[in-house]
Structure prediction request, 170 residues.
Amino acid sequence: MPVIGLSELYNFRVCHGNNFAPEKNNLIMTTINLNQLELNEFVAQNNPSQRCKATFPMLGAHGTQHSATVYFELEPGDSLGTHTDSAEELLLILDGTVEVTIASERTVATPGTIALVPVMKPHDIRNTGNTKARILGFFGGANNIVATFDNGWLPGGARVVDTAQATSEG
Prediction:
């Protein structure tokens, strides 16, 4: 099965300028500015409204030990797509109005809302507002994440995003 790895997800030029891999540089603090990230655009193979711009600002390849993050943006009407994650996730809505679906439950979330997504529960986020939605996801207990989507991403139809691929590609 095709797997999306780091080269499709993450642009290292941004991170290397922000003191990633602290253990290699004897640094303790690792920082990233969400407003300076270079995002990659993803579109689902069979669903043009499943579209996002995303990256993983911090994960195991960047020196995290027990956590990871994902940052993504959704234009009005677009959704991330139903998927499961290998670790528990907290979704923080930074901007916009979205509908969060976790299993069979749905709620409208606005800036400042945090939603808990249990491990391996199907979930989706759809922008129901009129402006771009910005979301930051925090994964606890794991520094690499495997996300499995219902629909494959273009090109190639990969349904699995595996951030552990980052260590072999970076």
Remarks:
- Helices lie at 6-9, 12-16, 22-25, 165-169.
- The chain has a mean pLDDT of 86.
- The CA atoms of residues 92 and 108 lie 13 Å apart.
